Amino acid sequence: MRGESEEVIRTEIEKIAECGIRAVCVEARPHNDFCGPGWWHDMDIVIDEAKKRGMKIWILDDKHFPTGYAAGLIETKYPERKKWYIADTTADIFGSQHPLTINVKRMLKPVIGYWQLGEPADYEERAKNELLAVVACQFTDSDTFTEETINLTGTCKDGTASFTLPEGQWRVHVIYKTRTDGGNEDYINMLDKVSAHTQIEGVYEAHYEHYKDEFGKTIAGFFSDEPELGNTKDVAYDAKVGKKGLALPWSDELEGMLKERYGDDYKRYLPFLFTETDTMELCPQMRYDYMDCVSRLYEKNFSKTIGDWCREHGAEYIGHVVEDNGTHSRTGHGPGHWFRAMAGQDMAGIDVIGSQVIFGAPAQTRSGMGGMDIDGEFFHYILGKLGASSGHLDPKKKGRTMCELFGAYGWNFGVRNMKYLLDHLLCKGVNYLVPHAFSMAEYPDIDCPPHFYARGNNPQFMWFARLMKYANRMCGILNNGTHIASVALLYDGEADWTGTHMPMQKAGRELIRHQIEFDVVCIDMLKCLKDYNGKIENKKLIINGVTFDCLVIPYMEYMPYELAGFLEKNSGFPVYFVGGWPRTVLKNAMHDKTASMEWKHTCKCLELPELAATLKADGMKKITLEPAFSKISMYHYKKQEQILMLMNESAEDSYKGVLQVPGIEEVVYYDAMKDCYKDIHTEVKNGIRQIPLMLEPGESCIIMEKKGHVTTGIYESFETQISNCQNVINLKDGWRTELASAKEYPGFSLLPMGGSLVPVSDIKPDFSGIIRYTKDIDLDKVPQRACLKVQHVYEVLKLTVNDTEAGICLTPPYQMEIQNYLKAGKNKLVIEVANTPGRDQMNYPMPPFDFSHEALEPSGMFGDILLYYS
Questions:
Q1: CATH T-level fold of 484-617
Q2: 127: which residues sit within 8 A by CB, 6+ positions away?
Q3: Pick from 15, 801, 24: which is nearest to 404 by CA?
Q4: Which of 494, 511, 610, 693 is the most exposed, having the fewest neighbouring CB atoms within 10 Å of its CB?
Q5: Residue among 350, 367, 484 at smallest CA distance from 424
Q6: From residue 29, how far is each of 32, 406, 410, 440, 791 by CA, in Å?
């Protein structure tokens, strides 16, 4: 919302409501008068229109992206609440054994290269940088050091440090506190209670003051968008402790926590946050303790504080952080620990935007926004499961996992691909969807398209509305129940802090490809099971109603003390280490004893390719496919009835086989697009129900116990529909073709094509809109069975037979049963096909930037158009 007219605001909300969407998230992008008179004027309109339509409002909680700007209060009112960082400069000393002096004052700033001369810097703020520690580390080889450090901080006087070092090669670290030599200094400090509370003062309290009577009514709550530790200005995913040149988050609270763990001499270990050591024993311990403290302060000062404030004021708190490529457990754009970042929220939250999940590219590393690599394996095999796991296992979430999706995929991303992405997320356990975005700006708005209505310029809007109604029904089916999972997969955040490890998506990929259901659990859950309604009972791990048969631990070089304690205490519970045993167990604190490794005698250690077969042999895999097929994803859910969602995530291969499910009663097929139930013929062999399963590429289905569901016939796959017909005719010629833009619809203009179908883009490459194809066919009699299948459609279609809508297709195969709409004699077929707004962008000035580049697909309908009948 940018200050649009009342008419535009009300129209956009009307269009949102037409889609069956019952809530909106209002975002300043940015509104020039956020939390000022102009903003309140526009919000009054939004609230009024939402109330008329029985809709809820969520408020994105800041003026600028990302959350943490606090509506500018740090910049304008509280400069003393700016972030603190610690940074490291060094001086190398070789030989020594004689008195030396270094100019510490000169070292309280970054070193630069000559090519950086003249670059802007806040010299006034930099002059206020404060010395924290001076520590000497002895070289061993190359760029590594011994762990016997010398704390020289006490030698500092009047801006210099004077000392004598033992013989050898040394690096002296000058570690200083700064407010400017890190990330965005106008944002709150998540590690400082007072600074973090500025977010509440700047945004939350301001809205409560204006709309307190609507809190918990029309105003459902607030949405945080990618809040971060923010200690770097770089757009990168690798802000791990130990990265050269990386300033790190800091606060007095953090310093106090480190003193509790290390005593007053904690400063001698600070270089381990910036450099590698030879033995890597004390170094990973310090890194673990630092990140543990940082992420707990984020959790306490930001996530939980805001969540508590919202609930105290009758609202809820939702949102997501940057999860990308491991950032979920790092500094920079990350929060330090994903589960702790979610701790205060009433729903778990993730986002999938900017081509992060692409149909047909599940494990490829792809080029994303700004040339950043997209780790397909992370996004495809773990992100959705990570989000859903918090929704399942944290009682506060009430089984709810939210995902912001579609944003920044670009104008070429249409309803066909939206359905694939939406189904992919549902099949991972996501059950609340936040489509991004409805933009009220003038078309074409270059801010993170696609935009679903686009001031009336998106030709697929009517199909998008159908998709949203489908999504509502699917989310309803997959809510208010319990996930059925056999495997608890350990979250890899702590492993990422300290050393080499196997990313959790590696194990997640193996489990998904073998239809082994799992949730991601974190060490905090295992340490404090009671906080999560958890317990170990009969050699099962139960967390918030989800019962796990085993724990799978991807390789970690350094095991946290708390995890070792859980394994020792629960030695009868099956545990599988994948990729190797840990090198060692970290201490509970620097000066405590290390936990024993007796737990190794009761755990198994295996290689990743052995995981699925071992779990199956040990009885941890309950549901199987015959024949096996690695591209089928599965989600197992239980309400009054058992529910199975299955999706063929292959872009090339169909699946035909049998789904073998023990302990399930008679089942039905639920068609969420038509909102009806169909019977399925099954058999039971040795207590295992044999369910026939046929899925085309990209197709998904819901199979559920029949219980009291009323069916309207027998389910038939696309293949069966065709095989039940004895005759076929090709209708590919003789079509009348007409065009209409989204704005012109339904006013069509003839496109001369001579009756033969070719891609419309061959004739009008810059056309985006609706293409209407009309053809009359004669039938001697009404067929008992009839099915129409179109070979190529780009990309959604609606079929009308004899002036009655016979169906829509959002995805391939473009096939519909139409016997109920045909008659003897002349029949009129009308097929309307809509492409995306992508080609229309040729008619506008190109934006000054590109997130990525992609090929354009053709437009329209072509190829064989087959009528099967009998």
A1: Rossmann fold (3.40.50)
A2: none
A3: 24
A4: 610
A5: 350
A6: 9, 17, 18, 11, 42
Task: Tell me how far apart the alpha carbons of residues 799 and 847 are, in angstroms, rounded to a whole number.
Answer: 36
Beta bridge partners of 814: 790
Crossing angle, helix 504-513 and helix 384-393, to 10 degrees? Answer: 90
Would you say 769 and 745 are in contact if contact means Cβ atoms under 8 Å apart? yes
Which residue pairs, CB below 8 angstroms and at least 24 apart, start in 845-851?
847/446, 851/354, 851/368, 851/369, 851/370, 851/408, 851/410
pLDDT for 301-350, tens place per residue?
A: 999 999 999 999 999 999 999 999 999 999 999 999 999 999 999 999 99
Q: How confident is the model at residue 472 (pLDDT cuts 50, 70, 90)?
A: very high
What per-residue confidence (pLDDT) applies to 596? 77
According to DSSP, the β-strands at 796-801 and 825-834 are antiparallel
The stretches of 641-777 forming alpha helices (DSSP H) are 718-723, 760-763
Predicted confidence (pLDDT) per residue in 530-579, tens digit: 999 999 999 999 999 999 999 999 999 999 999 999 999 999 999 999 99
| Assigned architecture for domain 727-869 | Sandwich (2.60)
Residue 149, C-beta contacts closer than 8 angstroms, at least 6 positions apart: 135, 136, 137, 268, 269, 271
Tokens 């918990």 correspond to: 216
Those residues with Cβ within 8 angstroms of residue 815's Cβ, 6 or more apart along the chain or in another chain: 718, 721, 722, 787, 788, 789, 790, 809
pLDDT in tens, 801-839: 999 999 999 999 999 999 999 999 999 999 999 999 999
Per this entry, what is the length of the chain?
870
Which H, E and C letters describe 797-812, residue by residue? Answer: EEEEECCEEEEEECCC
| Model pTM score | 0.97
Q: Structure tokens of 316?
A: 């809820």
Helix 461-477 × helix 415-426 angle, to 10°: 10
Q: Do the domains 484-617 and 624-715 sit in the same CATH topology, yes or no? A: no
> What sign for the dihedral angle of Cα 282, 285, 291, 295?
negative
Please tell me the predicted confidence (pLDDT) of residue 96.
Answer: 77
Enumerate the β-bridge partners of residue 261.
none
Please state, in angstroms and as integers, the Cα–Cα distance from residue 360 to each residue in 177, 645, 854, following that order: 48, 19, 15
Whole-angstrom distance, CA of residue 78 vs CA of residue 198: 9
DSSP conformational letter for 736: E
* Cα(420)–Cα(438) distance, integer angstroms: 20
The pLDDT-based confidence of 359 (bands split at 50, 70, 90) is very high
Separation of alpha carbons 26 and 45, rounded Å: 12
**What does the block give as tokens for 127?**
């002059």
Beta carbons within 8 Å of 312's beta carbon, 6+ residues apart: none
For the chain, percent of residues with pLDDT exceeding 70? 100
Angstrom distances, CA of residue 126 to CA of 120, 273, 710, 849: 12, 22, 72, 33
Q: Is there a cis peptide before residue 795, judged by omega within 30 degrees of 0?
A: yes
The partner residues of 690 in beta bridges, in order of sequence, read 660, 683
Provide the residue ranges of all domains of the chain, joining segments of one domain with +: 348-458, 484-617, 624-715, 727-869
Helical packing angle, 6-18 and 37-52, nearest 10°: 40
Write the pLDDT tens digit of every residue in 637-695: 999 999 999 999 999 999 999 999 999 999 999 999 999 999 999 999 999 999 999 99
Residue 595 in this model has a pLDDT that exceeds 80? no
Number of alpha carbons in the 13 Å side-chain half-sphere of residue 587: 14
First to last CA, the chain: 55
Q: Give the neighbor-by-neighbor strand order of the sheet with 786-794.
A: 727-730, 860-869, 786-794, 814-817
DSSP state of 201: I
Distance CA 487, CA 652 (A): 29
